Amino acid sequence: MKKITITNAYTWYNKGDAGILLGTVNALKKIYKDEQIQINVLSFTPEEDSKRYCQDKTIVGVYSNVLNPHPYKHTRIGKIVAIIKLLFRMIYLYIFSNLNIRSLIKKDKTFSVLNESDIIVVCGGGFLGGKKLDSLMHVFQMYINTKFNKPVYVMGTSIEPMHNKIVKSLTDSVLKKMNHVFAREIITYDYLLSILDESKITLIPDMAFMLEDKSKKFKNIQELKQKSSVVYGITVRNWNFPNNNNPKELMENYINVLSKFMETEILKNNCSFVFVPQVIVKHGDDAEVALKIKNQLSEDCKDKFVIMRDDLSPVEIKALIGNFDYFIGTRMHSNIFATSMKVPTIAIAYEKKTNGIMHTVSLDDYILEMDKLTLKALRKKVMLQKDNKLKIEKNLAKKIDDIRKEIIEKLTVVLNGEK
User: Fold this and answer.
1) Sign of the C-alpha dihedral, residues 278, 82, 139, 57?
2) What is the 3-state secondary structure (H, E, C) of the chain?
């Protein structure tokens, strides 16, 4: 029996991150198909996540990441209190992991699970780098992973450019301790080449591409299609535009452009739009942005924008997206779900990781930068999307199959020595 622990998982309520985790599980099943495997998961919402993830019999337990701010009050004081608690716990764990890790293994289930693992996998995602000090929570988890003399693999990461010297120094030092790092796009791969030996890095597509496909007709979408010429799926999000001086104006522009585009398409071309519930966390529900867009539509158009708020699994999200004629996604993993279902997709990129993912599926011409979004540019991309619909679908059918083969082949080469 091979025991694997996947750390740094986020939460079920972000369907993109949940898709990465489940895609990683699917990949590990394929690689170790002739062996029995047990998988434990470390996440930020373990109680809720265990109810969902453990439906897969391969996943035997879900526990907390070593640093976990949840739950905390989403006020200024609440955040400060959470940070202080995290700092004290980090110092405590740092000291004892170096002086007496056996005591932590006996007292803390997370440490016990890590100690019993044969392999430790850092879940893929975009949590490293940037200006995000909270990325240090993930960096510290990766550091703790190295304390058990087990191989540690980072499986499908993106690293945003780091402008904070402390964040960069700590991140780089921990990455150097990893047995192997799988980068999910070329920007991260090139960065890793500057700090790691090439033999310790592999470029692979995002692990969410390994999420299973499922065909399912949704009654409300089918009824909408009967009344519409075209049905678009759409994801939106709130964003703070960290590298810009006018984030409020840019967010307003984003909402205005999308609402004006939708209004025109509804009135002139009898189109309908469906909001896909990709992130449903309490303090960051994407539906809040969707409602702002809907409120800007005229009364005649509002019933043509359906806002779904169901708690769907990542596989069900993919199945839902498969019902659409076209897709316009701001959430990066919604675009992976859409392209995996061979739906022509336009990406609105809020970070460079989106550009890398769209390059993976050869859709570089269908990217719009969120901070430079204009109505004219969006309409131009939509026209291109419509003109090339059949070509895009044919390309994606082959591309997705190739991507999945590539992921398994590259993971197997590296993990084979540990089998």
Assistant:
1) negative
2) CEEEEEECCCCCCEHHHHHHHHHHHHHHHHHCCCCCEEEEEEECCHHHHHHHHCCCCCEEEEEECCCCCCCCCCCHHHHHHHHHHHHHHHHHHHHHHHHCHHHHHHHCHHHHHHHHCCEEEEEEEEEEECCCCCHHHHHHHHHHHHHHCCCEEEEEEEEECCCCHHHHHHHHHHHCCCCEEEECCHHHHHHHHCCCCHHHEEECCCHHHHCCCCCCCCHHHHHHHHHCCEEEEEECCCCCCCCCCCHHHHHHHHHHHHHHHHHHHHHHHCEEEEECCCECCHHHCCHHHHHHHHHHCCCCCHHHEEECCCCCCHHHHHHHHCCCCEEEECCHHHHHHHHHCCCCEEEEECCHHHHHHHHHCCCHHHEEEHHHCCHHHHHHHHHHHHHCHHHHHHHHHHHHHHHHHHHHHHHHHHHHHHC
Gap between the Cα atoms of 344 and 272, Å rounded: 16
Q: Which amino acid is at 171?
A: T
pLDDT tens, residue order, the chain (419 aa): 899 999 999 999 999 999 999 999 999 999 998 678 999 999 999 999 999 999 999 999 999 999 998 766 667 787 788 888 889 999 999 999 999 999 999 999 999 999 999 999 999 998 998 766 679 999 999 999 999 999 999 999 999 888 888 889 999 999 999 999 999 988 899 999 999 999 999 999 999 999 999 999 999 999 999 999 999 999 999 999 987 889 999 999 999 999 999 999 999 999 999 999 999 987 789 999 999 999 999 999 999 999 999 999 999 999 999 999 999 999 999 999 999 999 999 999 998 888 888 998 999 999 999 999 999 999 999 999 999 999 999 999 999 999 999 999 999 999 986 54
289's tokens: 């942005």
Token pair 């993993």 is found at 333
- Amino acid at site 3: K
| Amino acid at residue number 315 | V
